[in-house]
Amino acid sequence: AQAQTTENTLLWKVEGEDIKDAYLFGTIHLLPQSEFELKSSVIEALDASETLVLELDMSDPAMQGKMMQKAPMKDGETLDKLLDEPTYQKLDKMLQESIGANVAFMNGWKPFIVSSFLIGRLIEGQPASFELSLVQAAKKREMPIVGLETLEEQMSIFDRIPYQSQADDLAEMVNEEEKIKNLYAEMVAAYKAENLSRLYEMLTEYMDDPKER
Fold it and tell me: Which residues lie closer than 8 Å to 10 by C-beta, 6 or more apart?
């Protein structure tokens, strides 16, 4: 394929011989409600579609239970072994402030999952979700909703990324919260500008581990 210069966009139409037209829309999982907008072009693409396909089937009521089953690290690894004591205690305080849970409850969980409970701290005001909004819109239209991957497939990825590498990222969220908050705000700004090149640059800069990337 020859490299092409295309205008920035998060919504693409995929068409070709002997296939049904499809739309590909890039989402950012959480952003402030004040920054959230489901553009008319996305609504029109949804109206023209028969099925909503997400990264995971977010409409599955059993998803939370499945995640809890897959949350533990293998081989008895624990967060208190992967993090130094001050970071572990600070994480405990942040989790209590954010979701009212002690770190001891999650001590055996994959660091990546634990870090997801801190994402809300990076967002000013109420968070919004493209995925949940699309699920609600699809349900209103009585559209089937399916997932490209299963939760089990996604969780297995975080058994292949070294737990220490995940723990180092978690420690950065804990100890350099202001830096990560600014980085997240910059990512949201690039997303809203539909600047795919900048988003790619930011991800490759931040995720220096090829396996993590």
Answer: 25, 26, 27, 191, 194, 196
Cα–Cα distance between 171 and 6 in angstroms, integer? 38
Give the residue among 23, 30, 13, 18 at the shortest CA–CA distance from 143: 23
pLDDT, tens digit (0-9, with 9 covering 90-100), for 10-48: 999 999 999 999 999 999 988 899 989 999 999 999 999
User: From the centroid of its chain, how far is CA 197?
Assistant: 19
Give the side-chain half-sphere CA count within 13 A for 20: 7
| pTM: predicted TM-score of the whole model, two decimal places | 0.81
| Phi, psi angles (nearest 5°) of residue 78 | -140, 155
Distance between CA atoms of residues 44 and 21, nearest Å:
13
User: What one-character DSSP code corresponds to residue 121?
Assistant: G
DSSP state of 85: H
Pairing of strands 11-14, 22-25: antiparallel
Cβ-based neighbours of 22, under 8 Å, separated by 6 or more: 13, 14, 15, 49
Find tokens 């068409």 and name the residue: 15
User: Distance between CA 134 and CA 57 in Å, rounded?
Assistant: 11
Per-residue model confidence as pLDDT tens digits over 119-165: 889 888 888 999 999 999 999 999 999 999 988 888 888 888 889 98
What is the spatial distance between Cα 83 and Cα 94, in angstroms, rounded to a whole number? 15
